[in-house]
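Let us work through a complete example step by step.
Step 1: write down the sequence.
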Amino acid sequence: MKRPGPLLTLLAGLLFGLFMLTLNSTTGTKSASSTYKEESPAASPAPTRTSAPPSPSPTPTHTAAATGVYTGRTDDDSSAVAVSLRGGKAIAYFCDGHNIESWLKGDVRGDGSMALTGENGARLNGTLKGGARLSGTADLGGGHYTFTLAKAKKPSGLYRANSQVRGARIVGGWIVLPNGRQVGLLTRDGKRTTAPAIDPATGAVTVDGEQLTARPVTP
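Step 2: predict the structure and record it as tokens.
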């Protein structure tokens, strides 16, 4: 039996080499394919929810303590009204110039409203309107009145005298309106009469032949 020749040996070597080359090529492709993975985009962190700060509670409206005198007439033009304010306090005078009058007093609230009281159940309720006007109602002597007053400028204002004349107690109240008209009553030992005119510049007034001084009223 003849041994294979060199040519067969060379041919077998070539075939074996070709087989190994094909095997390595196939294995490399599969390995590369199996190891590749498409990276998913990183998940964005969920936004953190922040609670909105609570809305501040509305601040109550407060009116700065008014100072001054407000004068005017009732809406039915039957009487005059004056209110003097200072330091959160109020004094009011209501007068028809004939036989009805009342002095009232009380506090002024932070919102500019007031509820004043006087003798015999007299009441006056008012509210400041922007500092230039004061409107409200008055209940006294069985009557109900409405009014709107304007801030007074001197000599308009509210005046009062309290003195002794010839042994009699004299108490007088005067409202000087913006047009210069005066409305007031004078009480002699409890008896009312129409008050004589005063000089608003000085407060001087003559009662029963004697000169008195009516002074501006402040709380």
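Step 3: interpret the result. The first strand starts at residue 68 and ends at 73.
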